[in-house]
Amino acid sequence: MRFAGGGLTASPPLSLYIHLPWCVKKCPYCDFNSHAAQRLPEAAYIDALLADLERALPDIWGRRIHTVFFGGGTPSLFSAEGIDRILTSVRTLTQPMPGAEITLEANPGTVEAAKFAGFRAAGVTRVSLGIQSFNPRHLKVLGRIHDDSEARRAAELAATHFDTFNLDLMYALPGQTLAEALADIDTALSFQPPHLSAYHLTLEPNTPFGHTAPPNLPDDDLAADMQLAIEARLGEAGMQHYETSAYARPHHASRHNLNYWQFGDYLGIGAGAHSKLSFHDRIVRQMRTKHPQQYMDAVAQGTHIADARTLTRTDLPFEFMMNALRLNEGVPAALFEERTGLPLIVCTGALEKARALGLLLPGATRLQPSVQGQHFLNDLLGLFLA
To answer: Does residue 381 carry a pLDDT above 90?
Structure first.
């Protein structure tokens, strides 16, 4: 696709995503590209990651990296030495910004004080802990490998070793009451997290929960009550609800995720990792080979990019809005042309309809969902589908 108006005038901020695909056990609700580890081929996988990064350098040449994110799987299964080796090579091969945010996802069942200290020494600035619940009954139903005491201990360690950290929670869990959902929030708040994510449990089709053994979930009305009560409780605690599922104290929003939501660029390395890269005349999405062993073999052959496609003029409005309208404060209207290379006029019909339906706030200078638009986000986004 050639952009109208001559292409992008400036490159968006660039993030680096590093996928470490192993976990101790696959959870029944999880549809991420993760694999239960019989053994962890840490050294060989890091070799492949770094070869992947070297092969990708021409696509990001001369650009600074604003954030780094280790996702999974359970990245905290890797040793602190392994994370240090990866970050040392990232600093050698690329240009991280001074003070770049470096996040590592961790499972409470795999962490210990020495490992957290090692991650911090390697350069990790932020951990994101997959707590999901502090209730032992709900942890068991979710198939988590940690118990409630390990969850509390991990939260304490995160607060000890990191200036900023995130606690991941879920609500609308099987058999959960409104009081239990709020009890999880109150327990999380007792650790004074700078950032908290609260996700509605959804049943994905290719998972045991979504396919073979669907659990009995709270009905839509109770789930909506939970969402509103959680928003209110976190608001009272001084947490800003800045994105659909994300809450943060001032200056602690996830910079990596904000770059996604503002339609920034990201290079994804590792098994199944996705990239979105902007060039002067096109925006490209890539996906790496998904299975870890196949990925490692493919990197050696230079055939590890399983899919690459250029976004079309028709794709871009929905792609941009799918990200930007997750932000409760929205984005400046000028960002659309800056990040897509298209004039905002291509969205005029959808924008007018969204405002007429009360899903988008009026005003020419900002694209911002209304409260109704936040709660009916899929309806709002559907207006921008080709």
So the answer is: yes
- Residues 249 and 362 occupy one common structural domain: no
Q: Where are the alpha helices (DSSP H) in the chain?
A: 42-60, 80-93, 113-122, 136-141, 148-161, 178-189, 220-236, 255-261, 292-301, 316-324, 334-340, 348-356, 371-375, 377-382
Domain boundary among 231, 260, 289: 260
CATH of the domain at 323: 1.10.10
Helices (H), ranges, 237-291 = 255-261
Phi (first) and psi of residue 198, to 5 degrees: -125, 105
Query: Which structure tokens are listed for 294?
Result: 């196949």
**Is the torsion defined by CA of 241, 246, 252, 253 positive or negative?**
negative
Question: What is the CATH number for 174?
Answer: 3.20.20.70
Q: Of 27, 129, 122, 41, give the one whose Cα is nearest residue 80.
A: 122
Instruction: Note whether 254 and 320 are within 8 A (CB).
Output: no
For residues 214 and 143, membership in a common domain is answered with: yes
Residue carrying the six token digits 């991650």: 119
Adjacent-strand bridge partners of 170? 199
Segment 320-331, tens digit of pLDDT: 999 999 999 999
Write out pLDDT tens, residues 88-120. 999 999 999 999 999 999 988 777 767 999 999
Give, in order, the Cα–Cα distances in Å from 342 to each of 307, 313, 339: 24, 8, 8
Contacts of 226 (CB under 8 A, 6+ apart): 171, 172, 176, 178, 181, 182, 218
Q: Give DSSP secondary structure letters for 97-123.
A: EEEEEEEEEE-GGG--HHHHHHHHHHT
Q: Which helix (H) or strand (E) holds 283?
A: strand 282-288
Q: What is the DSSP letter of 3?
A: P
How many angstroms separate the CA atoms of 298 and 293, rounded?
9
Domain that holds residue 375: 317-382
141 confidence band (pLDDT: 50, 70, 90): confident
230, 348: one domain: no
Is residue 10 assigned to a domain? yes
**Same domain assignment for residues 178 and 75:** yes
Domain for residue 282, yes or no?
no
Same domain flag for 60 and 170 = yes
Q: How many domains does the chain have?
A: 2
